[in-house]
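Working notes for the structural subgroup meeting. M.R. asked for a predicted model of this chain before we commit to crystallization trials. I am recording the input and output together here so anyone reviewing the notebook later can reproduce the run.

Input as submitted:
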Amino acid sequence: MFFERNTITRIFIEMENMILHKAATRGFADHGWLKSYHSFSFAQYYNPERIHFGVLRVLNDDWIAGGMGFGMHPHDNMEIITIGLEGALEHKDSMGNTAVIRQGDIQVMSAGTGIYHSEFNHNKDKETRILQIWVFPNKKNVQPRYDQISLRPEDRINKFQQIISPHPGEPGVWIHQDAWFYLGHFEQGQKTVYHLKKSGNGLYIFIISGQVVANGQVLSPRDGLGIRNLETIQFEATTDTEILLMDLPMAIS
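Returned structure, recorded in token form:
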């Protein structure tokens, strides 16, 4: 009986520390040329229980029709990260940057004191798919900046490849926040353990494709799982799986 009571207590504590966002429960906007799924409240989608997870404010899963996109629009005091999943997205901004974000590219834009930018599908006849993520910074009114890198997908097979960190010079690109992002491509049956980088941080897991079991919770494509107050998370891929991990502070400074 003692063992059973402690097992139930452990399961209850783990459930209290996890927030599950199934793919089908996300907000959705269909603008014809743009189909966008929102893991957190965004634009016309508002859910008081999904405003943010720690400093993670926006996680949008965007499908952009050929030749279409967003005209010049402003941002400030936000770290904006774009992950190319398919196709090519053309970026222009008020700092004079022009770039194309392709599959495997990671772009970061520190909006700081203010920046304007536009994003258009670079191809006229193919759809472009991206993940766009907004993170509250730990420093306000910084000088706006832009950076972009191309990564080797083979460097994340059966392991996590760092794509974002707080420190210039580390693998990936850096942002104004004590956050680390990783991409992983795990083959069926592979197991791994992730250890949080900083005390007090939480972990938000987003499944790009496939299926994985994370600390006993089954996650399918486009599911999100927020975990807090735990230092290690165990993963087992039940199919070939692509995972995005976001290790970030739970307190907004």
